[in-house]
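job 3f2a | input accepted
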Amino acid sequence: MAFDIEEELRKLPAKPGVYLMHDEKDVIIYVGKAISLKNRVRQYFQSSRNKGAKIEQMVTHIARFEYIITDSELEALVLECNLIKEHRPKYNTMLMDDKTYPFIKVTVQEDYPRVMLVRRMVKDKAKYFGPYTSGGAVKDTIDLIHKLYGIRTCNKVLPKMQGKERPCLNYHIHQCPAPCQGYISKEEYGEAVKKALLLLNGNYGEVEKELEEKMQQASEELEFEKAIEYRELLGSVKKIAQKQKITSSDMEDKDVIAMATDKEDAVVQMFFIRDGRLIGRDHFCLHIAGEEEKEAILLAFIKQFYAGTPYIPKELMIQYEIGEQELIEEWLSKRRGQRVRIRVPRKGEKEKLVELAMKNAQMVLTQDKERIRREEGRTIGAMKEIAKLLQLPKIDRVEAYDISNISGFQTVGSMVVFEKGRPKRSDYRKFRIQGVKGVDDYASMEEMLTRRLSHYENYPDLIMMDGGKGQVNIARKVMKAVGVCVPVCGMVKDDKHRTRGIYFNNTELPIDRDSEGFRLVTRIQDEAHRFAIEYHRSLRSKEQVHSILDDIPGVGPARRKALMKGFETLEQLKNASEEEIAKVPGLNQKVARQVFAFFHKEEE
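job 3f2a | predicted structure (604 res):
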């Protein structure tokens, strides 16, 4: 039955909930929430209301709508965020980035705590520091803590596993006091952890003073290697300390959010302040679906960002007043477990900080606009050029195939995938050709395509073969056999093995060598070839890892290992008597006789 919009509007309940707008292809094009679904959804279809250009355009594409009732507006807000993230509707302001930030976790709930990098906060009684915007800086900090305080890096359960295994390399290079052996008491180790926590809390002065004293003392005692080690550690501490700029005297966690916009795009700049220190910044690109108020864009960003991030600060300092501020505060407070405030600073240092974030956003928008345009030309634009050349309506996904072998040894095939002009490595596939003997690229290609097209249903918009007419005909033969119809072309090379043109519909089509389409075809062909060669090389390496001991009758992996332990070199084994070989644990007299005979027969 056809969807009668007027009839369905009359059925809408006056309750809070989420509504989803569908187009004629049943694709979700907009998700929104409402205190009253009846009032909110009806507004879209009232001609008297000034809805704005974006909404006016969206309404013309609505074929039907559906809704989900919730118990409260807060529940509707949470559901709206989840649905937008899941469906990414065309007419919602979309956050294009999906970033997670690292934390430093100190497992203080353990008897012998560890310091590690994690991506999520969980309620496990550990202490978390962050989030930080630079994974590299986090790793540097953790490495420094391990070197300074000898914090263990293993994940052994202590003291339960004390003494059950030998100490690791870190003990022998003096970077861990081996709590796994009980060489350090729980109390002494705890003091080292306390110092590490002081460092993570920003107490750099005390650490620097201690290292300077140790460096001076080592120098006076002519222990120059130790002095150099302390000097390097001191330099690492100062480097990390310089990144921590004090921005707030109240020592609270804040996020500063500001943005810059143009007609189609927006950039949101965030400053992350933790314990009063600016620990980093990041920017996010958004695509704006038509004309939209800046306040609405900012609100959309806040909903999507904080629906996905594991950490909520105590305060958000933002550029504009947003609608639903009390509701957003309530939602964030529930997620944090404590009161969260949203403020728009009007004066003083806080206003200057928001203004600085805005200037950064404007700079990124201005500088990146041309870069983004160039990148789209290299990717999406290049795909459009190829589609136009082949007279296809559109090309989003391309699969390219290649064969690799050396004189018929271990023939392999590769499938690489490009989506919107970019490689999608998660969809790459390797094929080990099994039913073809010797060198026969056509038969190998036929086997590979038959396996791919028979077992995977996510067919591409275009198949590209590494070759011309022959390879294209093989692809057509396979598609006819399995009942699949996908456009297929060949990437033709010249005498110097460089891309020359595209073979399509029994014709070789020349491509402008200076075009982005030509460059993309070359990248796809090179990537398919590289992936096949890389796989072939890995198989050859496995075949070539072979020991002479493997050729001795009666010697398998275990006995081979025993012989390698029993004799330091192959020469010693060759010169050993049968009785000496028999003394190796795991070998008997019969095997010793076979080993002895093997080497003496070789010498004869």
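job 3f2a | The chain has a mean pLDDT of 84.
job 3f2a | closed
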